[in-house]
Specification:
- By secondary structure, this protein is of the alpha/beta class.
- The protein has a domain of 83 residues.
- The strands form four sheets. The chain has a twelve-stranded mixed sheet with strand order 1-2-3-5-7-8-9-10-12-14-15-17, with no helix packed on it. Strands 4-6 form a two-stranded parallel ribbon.
- The radius of gyration is 38 Å and the shape is elongated.
- It comes from Austrofundulus limnaeus (Annual killifish).
- It is a lipid-anchor.
- Pfam families: LRR_8 (PF13855).
- Its main location: membrane.
């Protein structure tokens, strides 16, 4: 009997002791909760359409990936002050409220990647995340990042922004990210890398910009990247990159510039000289123009190979023609101005006046241009030419005009549609000459005299009268 009383007393004491203990946090439905190695709530792949409201406050890790979540509210994790890891990737999130993660001062890793409908982000969505070191925003359909979106995130080291639709980045977007080491921006639609785009990234180690649409890098774009070791710019629309732009990259070890269509003329000289000083590893820089250097590696060229200058019209035709199939538009990366290195010494003053003649290294093209000029001058002065005929005009005129015709573009001889009105008359006379005298009288052109190797002097006298 005494034994029973004793056991009953012990049971009563045990019940009373349990009631005095703090209540244990409950686990949300469809989730699994465990304490080791850290208090964790695992709710992945459960078909959840909203974030559970009964998450234990002492949770340090929450896994909500691969569900059907559509929104992150400012109250979704407001009680989880111990949270260090939050995974929200592979959902249908389209909206994140302002200050959605405010109060998560211990959060170190946030993964919101692979949410294709997340087109925009509130400028204050990440406000207060001063301890965050990894942020995943890849494959979210982002077209832009709002001004100040990374403000105050002084501990961030890894930022993943690849596989979005980002067209441009505001100046000073990363200004507060002095500790950032990895920045992934590949497979976006960035066209211009501006001077202040990467300002503040003084500890950046890796910058991936490949598979964008970069056509131009401004001269001071890499000024703050003195510790950068890896730079990937392959498969872009680059044609020119200056050595001055690359000079600040004092720690660079790995450089990839393949898959662009480089102009290997005087504009590439400073980059060629920079490579002579560069001690790291680099891909090939395959020349696209001029034609005689096509397929050659810019780094392997000789100094004299870069003395010429490809004319702009040829560059636009080659780079943006239908055969290329690489560029999405016909936008020229070079603009309408002629680079200074393409101008001769006596033409460089024209940069200030905005007037410059077309420069080309193609001897045939130069010959054609000179011939066109001579041809027009002959038309303007044809009457003067007739007056100046002397006793032996036929031999002199015939020799001179033979040389002129050799230099003329075929259009002026074979295509009557491209000729002037007086040229059309000449072609008509050549096709159906009524008589030799009629041709000279009606046209008065010295070019027609080439079709008649022997012309009596009396006819010339009649023509002159």
């Amino acid at each position: 009997m005494r034994t029973v009383v004793f056991d009953g007393g012990r049971l009563l004491l045990l019940v009373m002791w349990l009631n005095l203990l703090p209540q244990t946090d409950s686990c949300p439905a469809k989730c699994v909760c465990y304490n080791e190695p850290r208090p964790t709530v695992a709710c992945q792949q459960q078909g959840l359409s909203s974030i559970p409201t009964e998450i234990p406050v002492r949770s340090q890790r929450i896994f909500l990936q691969s569900n059907s979540l559509t929104m992150v509210r400012s109250t979704s994790f407001s009680s989880c002050h111990n949270l260090t890891v939050l995974w929200l990737y592979s959902n249908n999130i389209s909206y994140i409220e302002a200050r959605a993660f405010y109060g998560l001062e211990k959060l170190e890793e946030l993964d919101i990647g692979d949410n294709n409908n997340l087109r925009t982000i509130s400028p204050t969505a990440f406000r207060g995340l001063t301890k965050l070191h990894t942020l995943q925003l890849h494959r979210c359909g982002l077209s832009e990042l709002p001004v100040g979106v990374f403000r105050g995130m002084v501990s961030l080291q890894y930022l993943y922004l690849q596989d979005n639709n980002i067209l441009t980045l505001h100046n000073d977007t990363f200004l507060d990210l002095a500790n950032l080491t990895y920045l992934y921006l590949h497979n976006n639609k960035i066209k211009i890398i501006t001077n202040n785009m990467f300002r503040g990234l003084i500890n950046l180690d890796r910058l991936l910009l490949h598979q964008n649409r970069v056509i131009y890098v401004e001269p001071r774009a890499f000024t703050d990247l003195g510790k950068l070791k890896s730079l990937f710019l392959f498969y872009n629309n680059l044609t020119v990159l200056t050595g001055e732009t690359m000079d600040p990259l004092a720690s660079l070890q790995y450089l990839r510039l393949n898959g662009n269509q480089w102009i290997c003329d005087c504009r590439a000289r400073t980059l060629w000289e920079w490579f002579k000083r560069f001690k790291g590893s680099s891909s090939e820089l395959e020349c696209y123009v001029p034609d005689f250097l096509a397929g050659r590696d810019l780094k392997q060229l000789k100094s004299e190979d870069l003395e010429g200058c490809v004319e702009t019209s040829q560059i636009q035709t080659n780079l943006f023609g239908s055969k290329s199939g690489k560029f999405p538009s016909t936008e020229s990366p070079l603009g309408n101005t002629i680079p200074r290195c393409c101008l001769r010494d006596n033409d460089k003053s024209s940069i200030l006046s905005g007037k410059s003649r077309q420069i080309t290294n193609n001897p045939l093209k130069e010959k054609e241009n000179m011939s066109n000029t001579k041809f027009k001058q002959q038309e303007r002065t044809k009457n003067e030419t007739q007056i100046k005929q002397n006793d032996g005009p036929l031999g002199t005129l015939s020799n001179n005009l033979d040389k002129t015709l050799e230099n003329l573009h075929p259009e002026f001889i074979e295509n009557p549609e491209s000729a002037t009105a007086s040229n059309k008359k000449m072609k008509k006379c050549v096709k159906k000459p009524k008589s030799d005298a009629h041709c000279i009288k009606s046209q008065g052109s010295t070019l027609q005299m080439l079709h008649f190797p022997v012309i009596p002097m009396i006819w010339i006298s009649l023509a002159m009268s």
